[in-house]
Structure formats: C-alpha cells, structure tokens
Write a structure and sequence with these properties.
With about 250 residues, this protein is mainly α. It has helices spanning about 5-15, 35-55, 55-65, 65-80, 95-100, 105-125, 135, 165-170, 205-215, 220-225, 235-245, and strands at about 150, 155-160, 190-195, 200-205, 220, 250.
Length: about 250
Amino acid sequence: MNLDELQSAYRTYLISGDPGNLASTVVEDSFDATERLRIYRNNFLISLGEALNGNFAVVRQMVGEDFFAQAARAFILRAPPSKPCLFEYGEGFPEFLAELPEMAKLPYVAEMASFEFARIAAYHAPVEALLTDAAIARVPPEKLADLPIRLARHVRLLPVRFPILDLWQAHQAPNADLAAIDMSPRPHTLLICRPHRTLVTQRIEPAATLFLSTAMRPAKLAQAAEACGPNLDPDGLGQVISLALQHRLLVSPR
C-alpha cells in the first residue's frame, strides 16, 4: 500500500474494528500484529472519550457515567475528529444526543451540550481588535450611523428553551441542588463571550438578540439598531449598545 492507502486503511480500521489486510503492515515485537492494532484502536477510543468527558462535563453528570460513555463511543465511531485540537472535538455532539431515543424526554440535555461547546468555542476564539467605547467616542456624530460593525468571533448567541444557565451553575457545586430550578420551557437567548480572556455568560433580552444577530454579518450600526424594532426607545437602544461595548462584542471592519 502507498501512504494514502495506508492512512485510509487505518482510518477505516479505527472506525470499523476490521483490520482487513493491515496486519501485514505492522512490525511485530512482544505483541503480534492483531494485538498491536487493538491497542492502537483502544487508545484512539479512550483519548477521544476523555476529550468528550472534559468538553461535556455537566452533560456527563446529568446522564450518568455509563450512559455518557456509551453515547460518547457511538459518537466517536460516527463522527471522528476532523480537526487536530481535541478541545475542538464534539461540535456535533449536541445534535447527536438530541437524536437518541433516550433523550426524547430530556431535551434540555442536548441544549446543555450546546451550551458547554459554545463556552469552549468562545474561550478559544481568535483574538481581534475589539470595538471600545473610546473608539465610539472618536467617531463624529454625523458618521455614527454608518459605522461598520461585525460580531466578534468570541461571541456566541445560543437560543434555548430551558434554564440552562441555572442548571450549569447548579452543577458546579459538588452536590447539585436542582430542586429549586423551574424546568418549564421559556425560550430565551444566552450570550456567551470572552471579552477579557474570562468567559461571561448571561441571558439577554430580545432587542439585544436582534441587534447582535444582525451584526453576525458586517452591517452598519444603524442597520443593527433598526433590527431591534420600532418599539425600542432611545434608552433601550442605549442599553443594548452599552451591553455590546461593555463586553467587547463588536469589531469595526475596515
């Protein structure tokens, strides 16, 4: 086999467990070829399982060690990594969990998985030159409406139905006390960001959601403000813009 064929064969083996003719490529020592391949595959499954354990720690607490281990293994075999960094692994895990029949009565588990992965993505996002209140103050008033803005790459807007932030905070204690959490569905949006190398998470109002969602693609400040709707008064718009500046949620592309 040439190198491409060898790499493809190893990838197939890691997923299927069928060594095919790979044994002939393995140099034997104290272990025979089949045993060495099995060790290699076990290390593959264990290392990715540990990555998912770390990336989705609260989900693991919610569903239990055994179920999480089974779900993680099934996900690994269906969706092996496509990127080299293990902190990036698990992007499709929330959707995978949502498809499992066992999760039909626990829809908040998949939302928690989305929340945990959003925290990871926000924390590891690229560093950018962020828009500050001082930079805004330097813009002439007559040009402010046309100021180009874009949502910074460290920002995540996560629509949820359940009290995910309350659940996550409760699970940070050694013994999570969930009795006081109202699990009634109440759609809202969570802001997850990393303004100063520290993660910030909070629930935001619909007007802020509309403003920031508009800025996901490059827009003018006036366009994002108009997206908030005609019923938002100047004070309300000021609070939205203040939120964006306080948490450094915007950049100004040139």
